[in-house]
Structure formats: structure tokens, C-alpha cells
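Lab notebook, entry 399. We have the chain sequence and a SMILES string for pyridoxal-5'-phosphate, and the next step in the workflow is to get a structural model of the bound complex before anyone spends time on docking refinements. Request logged below.

Task: model protein plus pyridoxal-5'-phosphate, output C-alpha cells.
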Amino acid sequence: MNLSEIQALDEKYYMNTFGKRTPVAFERGEGIHLWATDGKKYTDFFAGIAVNVLGHSHPDIVKAVQDQAGKMLHCSNLYYIESQAELAQIICENSCADKVFFANSGAEANEGAIKLARIYFKKKGQSEKTDFICLNKSFHGRTLTTATATGQPKYNKPFTPLTPGFTHVNINDFEALEAAVTDKTCAIMLEPVQGESGVYPLDPDYAKKVRQLCDEKGILLIFDEVQTGIGRTGCLFGYERLGVEPDIFTLAKALGGGVPIGAVCAKDAIATGFEPGDHGSTFGGNPLACSAGLAVMRRVLIDNIVEKVGEVSTYMMEKLEALKKSTGKISEIRNAGHMYGIVLASETAGVVRGKLFEKGWLVGSVGTNVLRVLPPLIIENKDVDDFMEVLNETLIELV
Ligand SMILES: *Cc1c(COP(=O)(O)O)cnc(C)c1O
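Result returned:
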């Protein structure tokens, strides 16, 4: 099918949740490139919203998925699953977690983390501890409860009544957070770097104070690492950047390298809150998704992708700062590793994203003035040079 045939089918049969999409349909990808149905080649600096960490069609992931599909796609969690146990092991051996539960998406993993926090206190006989403090501008997912946790009214207001027990305060404002704590507070849930709302990193000093507050008051600290996990910030997990360990953290986007999988990861003492029958999933932790996850984790560790992200992102920030100076069209650059929020001096984010797209480059945008860039973690300095050239050209073209 060509693009207009696909568009016609989409308009007729697909629920209109995504509005007018970027006018392209991709057919195939390799490394950091994608090819559209009309044969045009694109360079992907958005990575499926932080999903394709190893780029497209990485041979390890392709082989893992092909081998597993040829053997067995699915079996239920009534039985033991080798790749599930091994993926849980590799996550625990490389993080502060002792136990893992697999879900199918980021929202579902966060939903699991919220349920785990509540049941943990119930089993301790502290059933009054039911409430969560989250941040304004956060994003935690699209289920009713994770949309409630999300500190952006546009995602939850249309769906009232919401799940009870959630309040929101501003990022990096410790006094506001402290003031929001009550006897009912069960957990504080934070993204190490707020991604969806435009790349706002947590301040490490703030994170340390929050950790201390949680310890003093017997509150759990949950990190939503759905976007920051698996090397994105230049650490394997975003909490390492902050120098604090959460009690529970969640993963999804990058973990399967493109195959849907989510994870709830917790310290032993907390994980025991879930006993047989308390939580579950039909598809969560299935052999196919876990084989993909294992391939991603092994490659990320073998190739020391985390160090590479550190080096290449430092190089990219130098280039971006230079571009800010030379063009005067950028007012601020927020980043953590390969998460970039490039704030433009004028309300032209949509225009710039569109022009980059015409030139064969994929990036995202937030609101009217932030370019959101999330390249695959395998990019090299020369890919950064190519991006800077096209971004420079595009910014200069702006009137
Ligand atoms: C993308 C994202 C989610 C939601 O993940 P889904 O797989 O779309 O459900 C949750 N939290 C954060 C921080 C995210 O970036």
C-alpha cells in the first residue's frame, strides 16, 4: 500500500486518538535509519520515543525473537519460563532491585508499582497508608490510575472520577513536597528526568532530601524509569545519576528494544508485599518479550553502551551550546545523557520539527517551543555532526 491508501484506511477504521499524524509510513529500519513506503530514507533521532535503544532491527534482537518464535511464542505463567527468570536475574544483578515482575507496558508497570506500595503497607498492618505524592508535569501512563498519577490535567480531567489518593507538587521544590506528606502517604513517585513534558531533570540534592524524608517517615520511594532506564541518561538506570536508590522502580520503553515489555523492580523487603494471587498477567513475562529483553540487556552491557552515551552526549551538548551561541535561536538546552529538550527562542518547535522531517530527520516536539530529541543509544559523534549541520541549516532558515 502507498501512504494515501494507508491514511484512508486509518481515517475510516482507527480511533482518532492520534489526530493528524506525521505524513509517513515506515516499512523497514536498520541501525539509526528508517525507510518509508515511498523509498525515502530517514535518520531517527527519536527512537520510537526512547524505545529503539539499539537502533532498528539490531541483529541480536532479530535473532532472539526469530529463535524464540520458532520454538514457542507463549506459555502461561502457570509454568516456569527460562528467559523470564534470566531477564529478572540480569536486571537484579545490575541494579538495586532484588525481585522483578514483568508487565507489558510502562503504564502497566507503574500500575503494578502502585499496587505493590499499597499492599505492602496493608500487609504491615498500616492500611491507612494509601496515598501517593507525584509531581506536576509528570507522565506515568494512560490507565485510569496512572493517568491520575500523571501531573498534567489534560490526561486525566476528561476521565473523572479519578482514582482517589493522589496529590501533585512542583519538581525540585522540597518544601512543597514535605508539606504535602500526611499520615496517609504511602509513596512518593518520581521520574528521574521528566521526559514527556519537555525534559526536566530532578536535582540530585532534591532527590537525596526526598530519600531521607522517605526513610524518616516510613514512605516508599518509587522511580518511574520507563523512559530513563537502560542507559538513556548515561547511567544504566536514572537513579544512579541522582545518587539515591528507590524502593521500587519501573522499566518499559527501552527494555525490549521494540518488543513490548514492562517491569516492576523492587527491594526484597518490599517485593514480599505481593504474595501468590495478589497480582498477575496473562502476557507479562512471556518468552518472546523476555528473549528480546535479554538480548537488549546483554548487548547494552557487552558494548558498554552506558559509557558511550556519556561520551557522545557530552560531545552533543558542546555542539548544541555552540549552536545556541552562533544562531541565537535557542534559549535553553535541558539534558540528561541522550534526553534533550532544546528550548527555542520563538514558538517554532512544530515548524522546526516539520522542516527537519522534510530533510529526512525524525525528532519530537513538546508544546510550541521545545524540540525533544531522543536518539538511539548507538549514535556516534559523526551522527551528531550530521544532525548539527541539518539543525543549524533549519534554524538559520527561520525568519
Ligand atoms: C512512556 C512513559 C510511560 C507510559 O508507558 P506506556 O508503555 O506508553 O504505557 C510511563 N512513564 C513514563 C516516564 C514514560 O515516559
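Notes for the group: The radius of gyration is 21 Å. Worth checking against the assay data. Residues 305-327 form the longest helix (23 residues).
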